[in-house]
Amino acid sequence: MQIYSIKQHDKSTLNPAELYIKSLQSENSKILMKSRLNIITKKINNKTNYRNIDWSILNYEMVLNILETLKNEKKAPATINSYLAAIKGVSKKAWKIKIISTDTYLWIDDVKEITGNRIKKGRTLEISEIQKLIKICQNDNNNKLGKRDAAIIAISYGAGLRRDETANLKINDYDRNKGTIKIKGKGNKERKNKINIKVQKIINDWLDSPNYQNNNYFLFNKITGGNIYTMIDKRYKQANIEKITPHDLRRTYATKLLEKGEDLFIVQELMGHARIDTTKIYDRRSDTIKDKAAESLPF
Q1: By CB distance 3.0 to 4.6 Å, which of 29, 137, 231, 285 could disulfide with 24?
Q2: Read out DSSP for 112-176?
């Protein structure tokens, strides 16, 4: 495959949005930002694909108008800020290939994020619910992948993994002797987490089962993040518990560690977060404290 540099290529044919998407390291980020840019394109000139717009028309007033429209649509602050991040990413690439001026880029870059909060999505599970989920999988005699599903749930909670992190685990990432798991997270960053001995046993039961392919490259054979979402959706219904998503297992990991008094910065490292503010979003301790306070009100 021949690779062209910007210097070799006619700048007039370069799309800064394409350059921005290519610069993102996570596949999930690429999918999200493509969607964001398509919606932004629709708002700018009623086209449906970010490839079909002349991004040289981007300017400060246009960005403010887009943000105002999103606010009027009652989008959450975090959602609006993700649109803003996409716009800023494109504007930086547009400036680099010299289709917008330095002044225009600096004005856009100076646009402040929207402040405000919404009620946090998802929930924290009780330990009894996690145990119930795992038992449902282990006792599923009609499904030869029951032990696999139990191991996926156990490691997702037991190491605080994103679903794609779980899906991409290699057999060599799991050190059976030391009880550790090596995780490749967002931004191609690696971390190594120790896992509870009960979680290790559930993983080992899967690896020792006849349904595990011993010559397989992946810890859970070939599976995707989407497959994990579908499996969790099926298993929580079988366990007869309140709706959960794979990410709720990760939320529960962070909250339970913090409830035990672990340092927020340690939890940040275990979660693989670049910023401490991101870890704070997962801290559900205040929800429990507020509930107890409200319940104690004399009446």
Answers
A1: 29
A2: PPPP---PPPS-PPPHHHHHHHHHHHHT-TT-TTHHHHHHHHHHHHHTT--HHHHHT-BGGGEET
Beta strand pairing status for 190-194 and 174-175?
Answer: unpaired
Known catalytic residue: 170?
A: no
Amino acid at 266: I
Catalytic residue, chosen from 92, 186, 191, 280, is: 186
Handedness of CA 286, 268, 177, 223 (dihedral sign): positive
Q: Which residues of the chain have pLDDT under 70?
A: 1-13, 117-120, 215-216, 284-299
Give residue 262's identity as a one-letter amino acid code. Answer: E
Please calculate the CA angle 126-132-137 and round it to the nearest 5 degrees: 135
H or E element that contains 286? helix 285-295
β-bridge partners, 182: 192
Cα(37)–Cα(90) distance, integer angstroms: 9
Give yes or no: 247 in active site.
yes
Residue matched to tokens 């009446």: 299
Six token digits for residue 230? 């579908």
> Which domains, ranges and CATH numbers included, belong to the chain?
11-109 (no CATH), 127-286 (1.10.443.10)
Which of 132, 184, 247, 280 is catalytic? The answer is 247
Question: Rounded to an integer, what distance in angstroms lies between the CA atom of residue 119 and that of residue 84?
Answer: 21
Q: Which of 235, 250, 251, 256 is catalytic?
A: 250
pLDDT of residue 245: 94
| Residue in 93, 148, 162, 251 annotated catalytic | 162
Cβ atoms 11, 55 nearer than 8 A: no
Contact 193, 178 (CB under 8 A): no
Catalytic residue check, 9: no
